[in-house]
Specification:
A: Non-ribosomal Peptide Synthetase Peptidyl Carrier Protein, Chain A; 3 helices; B: Butyryl-Coa Dehydrogenase, subunit A, domain 1; Butyryl-CoA Dehydrogenase, subunit A, domain 3; three-stranded mixed sheet; 7 strands
Chain lengths: 81, 391
């Protein structure tokens, strides 16, 4: 799942740097992800994993790193395939 | 608890006195001359009002957030510019109180604010960022002596020349991304403001908010540890929108009261007939009620999060949307009410020197949609609406 999340970040988070240079725990916002791009990322994740993030999860801390995104998807029952 | 409520009520009684006896009588001169409301701010200092929200342990009065919001409303009813200066100072204080995270320097500085009744302004907007407060060009830059400097081109700094301290957003370091921001508090002897241009605006003339080139040198203790992205969503943005909307409601309420006084004066002249303007006044009351509703809803949302000690709630997209909506809704409705008051009073309200004049109210309230441009907020909300669920 981590690889798929990384690919979606690459396609939608519009980072000014290559995602491969970031560790799973690195802060995507500090790496230059804007609030606007983060909304695109959330939409892309919802679409790719066929989930809906509830409002309580729609906040910066949930989408700030690869690790936190994978944990969020886990908690929504997305299987690590 | 009773003691605290008594203290809040005594504070508001004093604020109403200052509004009626000081801010109101000078409001027209402040507006006409586009000058700082020195009398009102001096009276607020005498009443220790600048430290109203600061907890008792830091030398303040420990008043509730509702009380501060109500004070903005009361001042707004008598002088929009005085209310805006008060509100913007409180925004900085509330932000520091909520985010000092045990910093001994910030704790001491709150004591200084309380003891000296220091006035704090903010430098958040910057030329070249397209009005996006979540991005900075200026950066905290190390100097040779272990300290730091910053230089920022600000298109407006409200009452900057009259402030004792400036709370400024900057990038964390010269190589940080535009959105990786921190707040820095500098005092008069550490910063220099070079005025850029003049100050002769349509409304809110007493806020004295020209552009400045700001330069500052400071030590590391003045950099607030909490990242601005957190401070913004948990405090600065919601507090700004709640306090601003309260003072806009104050301005609109006074415009309504003036139009009501006008209709009553007409009715007294001919007690047997309901004047035709009374029907317009009734329509205007509905508009004012809408504004009141949106403003009190915004306050409740914020105070609920304080009561539940749940700041996380404020950082959800649904909450961000709702506070943004408070701002755009209140800033569009307030001038509508003021203009409606002109529709009731007619030429008598149009003239600047009658008891029913509403020109200043209209002009002051028109600043509301520009302070953090509504167009930009609508763009943000348009994007957030795609993903937030229960708004």
């Amino acid at each position: 799942m981590t690889a798929r999340v990384r690919q979606i970040i690459r396609d939608h988070a519009r980072l000014p740097i290559d995602i491969d240079t970031l560790d799973d725990d690195d802060d995507l916002y500090q790496a230059g992800m804007t609030s606007h791009a983060s909304v695109n990322l959330m939409l892309a994740l919802e679409s790719a994993f066929d989930v809906e993030f509830p409002d309580a999860m729609l906040k910066r801390s949930v989408f700030e790193s690869v690790t936190s995104i994978v944990e969020a998807l886990d908690s929504l029952g997305v299987m690590a395939a | 608890m009773t003691l605290a409520i008594d203290r809040d009520q005594a504070f508001l009684t004093e604020i109403r006195r200052i509004a009626d006896e000081v801010a109101g009588p000078h409001a027209d001169a402040v507006d006409r001359e586009a000058r700082f409301p020195v009398e009102a701010v001096s009276a607020l200092r005498d009443a220790q009002a600048l430290s109203g929200f600061i907890p008792v342990e830091y030398g303040g009065q420990g008043l509730s957030f509702e009380t501060i919001a109500t004070a903005c409303y009361e001042l707004g009813r008598r002088c929009g510019a005085s209310a805006m200066v008060f509100a913007m100072h409180q925004i900085q204080v509330v932000t520091i109180v909520r985010h000092l995270e045990g910093s001994p320097w910030y704790a001491d500085h709150l004591r200084d604010v309380a003891r000296e009744q220091r006035l704090v302004a903010s430098v958040t907007s910057e030329i070249g960022t397209g009005g996006d407060l979540g991005r900075s060009i200026a950066a905290v830059t190390p100097d040779d002596g272990g300290g730091y400097t910053l230089e920022k081109a600000a298109p407006t700094v409200s009452y900057g020349a009259y402030a004792d301290d400036l709370f400024t957003t900057v990038r964390r370091s010269p190589d940080a991304e535009p959105g990786d921001q921190v707040l820095v508090l500098t005092s008069r002897d550490q910063h220099h403001l070079e005025p850029q241009g003049t100050w002769d605006p349509l409304g809110m003339r007493g806020t004295c908010s020209p552009g400045y080139q700001m330069r500052a040198s400071f030590g590391p203790e003045r950099i607030l540890a909490a990242p601005f992205s957190t401070v913004a969503v948990e405090s600065m943005v919601p507090v700004t929108h709640v306090l601003w909307s309260h003072l806009w409601l104050g301005i609109a309420t006074d415009a309504f009261d003036r139009s009501r006084a006008f209709v009553r004066a007409q009715a007294k002249g001919r007690p047997d007939v309901v004047p035709p303007t009374a029907a317009r006044l009734s329509q205007l009351m509905a508009e004012l009620a809408l504004l009141r509703g949106v403003v009190s809803g915004g306050l409740r949302e914020f105070t609920d999060s304080i009561a539940a000690d749940d700041r996380e709630r404020l950082s959800t997209m649904a909450a961000i949307l709702r506070f943004n909506n408070l701002k755009v809704a209140a800033s569009e409705q307030a001038p509508r009410v003021c203009q409606g008051a002109l529709g009731v009073t007619g030429i008598v309200g149009f003239k600047n020197d009658t008891p029913f004049s509403v020109g200043r109210h209209i002009r002051d309230s028109m600043s509301a949609s520009l302070m953090i441009a509504n167009e930009r907020i609508h763009q943000t909300n348009a994007s957030l609406l795609l993903i937030a669920k229960d708004v």
